[in-house]
Every structure is written in structure tokens, then in C-alpha cells.
Amino acid sequence: MNQNKEIEKAVTLLKQGGIVVFPTETVYGIGARLFSQTAIKKIFTIKGRPSDNPLIVHVGDKKELIPLTVDMPPLAEKLIDKFWPGPLTIILKRADIVPPIVTAGLDTVAVRMPQHPVALKLIRELGEPIAAPSANISGRPSPTRFQDVLKELNNKVDYIIDGGTSILGLESTVLDLTHVPPRILRPGFVTLESLKKIDSRITYNSQYRSRGDIPSPGMRHRHYKPSCPVLLVYPKKWNNTIARWVQKNIRIGLITYRQSILQHKSIVFQKTYYGNRNLFAHDLYQNFFEAEKKGVQVLLVESLKREKLGSAIMDRLLRASAK
Ligand code: TXA
Ligand code: MG
Fold it and tell me: What pLDDT shows up at residue 223?
């Protein structure tokens, strides 16, 4: 089927209260009509998502945001002008028309306008916003390829649009504009450094792992874990660590920034990125799925500095490797 036909079919199903998986530039999303409570409930059930974890509302147009929110700060307009459509989700005060099930009862709402042409066309043809979390089963890596979506969600949803491989590969940056100062709840391709150029007060939320202050409910749940354990390894300890693991006689996977390919019968999966962070980020989740396919028993991943895109990569790796 050609892509326009696929979008047409997806729109019909969404209108009927169906669940559709669609590509975005970050990761695939699993979507429903924002205003269908029954459909939204199905998303939580399919994903096994805890009901206290709110969804992102995807809009096809800046104007579509206006009725969803109240007291929009001037900073929101500036950020929207600069970064939309694109991988920036902003959190604003919620208007009453946004169903509480979408926001998990919070008085705020997360909104983004995706850049992917299929996602944009889908929302625009539907003529209303789509609520969509990432198209993974809760706790698992987010699919960035059609084949990974099929593996995770085939037969569980009404339709999947084939959009090939995601352009970016990590979920959007989530920025809370209801907090003073504005704070990043989830780092992504729109980096702290680039946001600070618009407003220097913007900062990371440093306490999201503490018990008392969990501003983004999704942050406290299990995340991004493939079926094999992920082990983060400091660059300085890389050689010694690999030397130890290859002696254990189990199937090992490696993801590194290095130039050199290692030869050993225990190493059944290996990806080297020559310092290319964008590609490292782009491939991260697909590598998790590939490592699973190869029967990897431990996946060793080289860590990097938490700056620029490194912050987003390390955020995902710290969660994927958390005990
Ligand atoms: O790139 C993306 O953002 C992808 C694509 C499909 O657009 N979507 C995505 O959605 O990653 P999801 O549901 O997997 O992640 C949404 C994150 C969660 O950590 C959730 O807790 C947080 O945003 N969030 C949503 N609404 C919020 C709110 N009102 N306040 C604080 N955090 C919120
Ligand atoms: Mg997610």
C-alpha cells in the first residue's frame, strides 16, 4: 500500500476509536484520538503502562495547542517558533478539555509537534490532536524501526504505518515550563545548551530520582531495558573489563565509540561508532533489539560525558543498566 493510502486507513481507524502505531522523527508512537477516553485506556492496557504516567499530546499545528492549555508563558511561543516541528515536548498548564486520563490526573499537559511528514499528515488529516506515548511495551526499549514495532506490538494494535527507520532514534526532550526556572525532565536531541540560548535560566531537573520530588511520573518507572543485562563501562576501564568478560564463556555484545574491532569467539554482537554520537544515539534502541536477537547474555556499552547529546544518551543508558 502506498503511504497516502496507509495514512488514510489510519485516520479512518483513529476516528473509530482505534489504536494506530505511526513513525515520528524520534521513535515510533502508539496513538489514539486525544478525546476518546476508551481508546486512550486501550493504550495504557496494550503497553502495560502504569496509569500514573501521562501521555504526550501530538499536534499538527501551533494553533491546535491553544485550546489545550491555559496561561501559556511567552517563553513557550519563543521555543515553539524555534524548535517546532521537532523533538521538543513542552509541559504547560492543562485546559479542562484535555481528558484527565491523558495527563494521569495532573494539572499540566505535555505537547509536541512532530517533524516526521507521516506523523504530521496523520494528525492534520485527522483534524485533531493524537495522544501517543512511545510504541514500546512499558519498560522495554522504544522501537525505532518498523520490524521492531512488529516484534513488540503485532496483533495488539489496529494498524501500524511503515515509516522505515526513525531519523533521530531517541525520544524528544521534555521541558517543564510550569516550573520556575524551566527544567528539562528528559534530555533529548534538543540539548540544554541549545535551549539556554533561548532562555539562560533553563536547567536540568537534578532531583528527579529523589523520592520527594518526582515531577515527571515516567521517570520513576523501569525503562528501556532489553532482555539481556546492560552494563555501562567507563572508557578508561573498557579494555580491562572486556578482557575479563570474554573469559566467562558467555555471549557478549559490545557498543563502543572506538575505532578497533575486537575478535573473540565470545563476542557475538559488536558495534563501533568512531566517536559519532548522533549515530550512536540513532542506533541505540535498534542495537538493543539486535543484541536480543543474537542471544547476547551481557551487553557492554561504553559511557560518555553528560554534555550536549551525551546527556540524552547517558540518561537512557543509566536507566537501561539500572538494577
Ligand atoms: O519522542 C517522543 O516524545 C515520543 C514520540 C512518540 O513522540 N513519545 C514519547 O512518549 O516518548 P512517552 O510517553 O514514552 O514519554 C513521555 C514522557 C514520560 O516520561 C512522561 O512521564 C512525561 O513525558 N510526561 C508526560 N506528560 C507529563 C506531564 N504533564 N508532566 C510531567 N511529565 C510528563
Ligand atoms: Mg516511552
Answer: 85
pLDDT given at position 314: 94
- Ligand 1 atom nearest the C-alpha of 186 is 19
Query: Which residues, in sequence order, are CB contacts of 42 under 8 Å at separation 6+?
Result: 19, 32
Q: How far is CA 100 from the centre of its chain?
A: 22
- If you ran DSSP here, which 8-state letter would residue 210 be given? S
Instruction: Give start and end residues of each alpha helix (H) in the chain.
Output: 3-15, 37-47, 74-83, 117-126, 146-153, 192-196, 238-246, 277-293, 309-321
Tell me, in angstroms, the distance from the centre of ligand 2 to residue 62's CA.
23
Ligand 1 in contact with 188 (CB < 6 A)? no
Atom of ligand 1 nearest to the CA of 56: 25
pLDDT at 214: 47
Task: Judge whether 56 and 89 are in contact, CB under 8 Å.
Answer: yes
Which residues 6+ apart lie within 8 Å of 6 measured at CB? 161, 162
pTM of the model: 0.96
What is the gyration radius of the CA atoms in the chain, in angstroms?
Answer: 20
- 49 CB burial (10 A radius; 0-12, 13-18, 19+): buried
Tell me the mean pLDDT per 10 residues along the chain, length 323: 94 98 98 98 97 97 97 97 98 98 97 98 98 97 98 96 98 97 96 98 71 52 88 96 95 94 95 95 98 98 95 94 88
Q: Which of 46, 174, 284 to mutate to test the pocket of ligand 1 (most atoms within 8 A of CB)?
A: 174
Compute the distance from residue 144 Cα to the ligand 2 centre, in Å.
Answer: 12
Helices 117-126 + 3-15 axis angle, to 10: 40
User: What is the rounded CA–CA span in Å between residue 162 and residue 22?
Assistant: 7
Residues 6+ apart with CB under 8 A from 155: none
Q: Whose CA is nearest to atom 13 of ligand 1?
A: 133
**273 within 8 A of 257, measured Cβ to Cβ:** yes
